[in-house]
Amino acid sequence: MTAPLPMLDLKGVRKSFGAIEALKGIDLSVARQELVFIIGPSGSGKSTLLRCCNRLEEPTAGQVLFDGVDILSPGIDINETRRHIGMVFQSFNLYPHLTALGNVTLALRRVLKLPRDDANERGRAALDEVGLAERAHAWPNELSGGQQQRVAIARALALEPKVMLFDEPTSALDPELVGSVLDVMRAMRESGMTMLVVSHEMGFAREAADRVLFMDEGEVVEEGAPARIFEAPAHARTREFLRRVTGH
Amino acid sequence: MNRIAENFFDLAVMAKYLPSIIDGVWVTIHLAVLIVLSGLALGFVLAVVRAFQIRPVNWLIVLVVDVFRALPPIVIMIVFYFALPFVGISMSGFVVAWLSLTLVLASFAEEIFWTGILSVDRGQWEAARSTGLGFLQTLRDVVLPQAVRLTIPPLTNRTIVITKSTAIASVVAVQEILTQASAAQAFSANTTPLTMAAIAYLIIFFPLVVLSRWVESRFGWKR
Ligand SMILES: Nc1ncnc2c1ncn2[C@@H]1O[C@H](COP(=O)(O)OP(=O)(O)O)[C@@H](O)[C@H]1O
Ligand SMILES: [Mg+2]
């Protein structure tokens, strides 16, 4: 019996920006329905790693297999591939000239080529999933940070992706708004979404993650179950980092 | 007081030359409208082409645009009108005026549109591309609507400056307002036609200047 195909499989992924080596050979396999959590100090390469998974950055070397397909191979239709890989950014990146619904339906109409009515229906359903059905016609600047981030999540979810990449989704939020975004992520987790999450929300990691990776200086220093990483980190760098972020 | 009235507001002269000034007004408006349409369209296309970031193409665009922004429009017109015939290209004064000012407006407009495109946050591109939109779709549906909004105030101002300089077309014998007024002034030995020209320009451009103020308050940042 062969093991089931991982959803994402990174093999020896390297990325250099000129002289800076942001990723020094990353191997990472994310199983279907798994939630992998990535922690690490600023500049350790977490964002670059996520961005290599949908080729917002082109890896300098290595392989990125998505659902068994090498997305770095020259023949790949990257736009077709990307609609199956949702991404959520720290700064939301909502389109300020479109309403919440307009943000969610743009790709439905332009990429999936859905007629306006179908796109709107599916867009509303996605907004409903993040608890914002009644704000469909609000402009981004009329929404709180937490609401904006949930619209951004709905924008990705509407395309029915196979995997979701989160790059510090709550770091730009006021503390009292973090919970609403984590609730949405928790619900996605429960519905079986495969998720790769960069975040400093250690509480969420403990409760929801299958695995935690600690990255430093472009490498995965260690990985393991959340309890193991948080309570018994094997490496001095991990201990040092956890001491700094948890403040004791 | 009387001298001023005679020289600048002679009613008989006004009545006599009003038809030719009005002819000039139509020529000026015709020329200005053509320049605005073709100049803005060409500037827009150049900025979009530049967004593809093809090195040699971009160098060429920047070079041409900078040349046309650096040269005084009157020099461009004179070169086109008096020098190009020597290499076998001869154009009517109207075409020369249209082409010269179109190229000047396109050059300024390209820079303004390009600045607008650059001012759209990189995160907008990334969000759109991450949902599977292609480069052109992202440019059209996400970046340009935001960029154009930012460019409307500077573009309006620049467009007024350049359409106003249709007055320069008098040097290449285009029968626009100033040309008509100068001829009338010579015939009548009276400067009243120049007053009429000034009034004609005010009637055309004053509303545009007022409009630009409104545009500025309407389209400045913030939605
Ligand atoms: N576009 C870029 N150009 C140059 N250097 C970059 C770029 N993006 C990231 N880097 C560098 O790569 C390293 C990793 O960055 P990043 O992946 O953003 O880290 P993290 O998300 O963990 O804070 C940093 O040293 C950063 O300065
Ligand atoms: Mg980062």
Which structural traits does this protein have?
heterodimer; A: about 250 residues; alpha/beta; 6-stranded mixed β-sheet; 4-stranded antiparallel β-sheet; 9 helices; 10 strands; about 25% strand; globular; B: about 220 residues; mainly alpha; elongated; binds adenosine-5'-diphosphate; binds magnesium ion
Total number of beta strands of chain B? 0
**Oligomeric status:** heterodimer
Q: Between the first and last Cα atoms of chain A, what is the distance in angstroms? A: 47 Å
Give the distance, in angstroms, between the N- and C-terminal Cα atoms of chain B.
53 Å
Number of helical runs of chain B? 9
Which geometry of chain B do the CA atoms define? elongated
Computed over alpha carbons, the radius of gyration of chain A is 18 Å
Biggest interface and which pair forms it? A-B, 27 and 19 residues
Number of helices of chain A: 9
> In this structure, how is the largest beta sheet of chain B organized?
none
Helix coverage percent of chain A = 25-40%
How is the largest sheet of chain A built, in terms of strand order? 6-7-8-3-9-10
Rg of chain B, Cα atoms, Å: 21 Å
Explained architecture:
The complex is a heterodimer of chains A (248) and B (223). Chain A has helices spanning 46-53, 78-82, 100-110, 116-129, 145-157, 175-190, 202-208, 226-231, 236-246, and strands at residues 8-17, 20-30, 35-39, 61-66, 69-70, 85-88, 163-167, 194-198, 211-216, 219-224. In chain A, a hairpin with a 2-residue loop joins strand 1 and strand 2 (20-30). Chain A is of the alpha/beta class and 248 residues long. In chain A, the strands form 2 sheets. A 6-stranded mixed β-sheet of chain A has the order 6-7-8-3-9-10, sandwiched between helices. Chain A has 9 helices and 10 strands. The termini of chain A are far apart. The radius of gyration of chain A is 18 Å and the shape is globular. Chain B is an all-alpha fold. Chain B is elongated. Chain A binds chain B through residues 54, 56, 79-83, 85-87, 89, 91, 93-97, 106-107, 110-111, 139, 141, 152, 155-156, 159, and chain B through 121, 123-124, 126-134, 137, 141-142, 145-146, 149, 223. Magnesium ion is lined by residues 46-47, 167-168 of chain A.
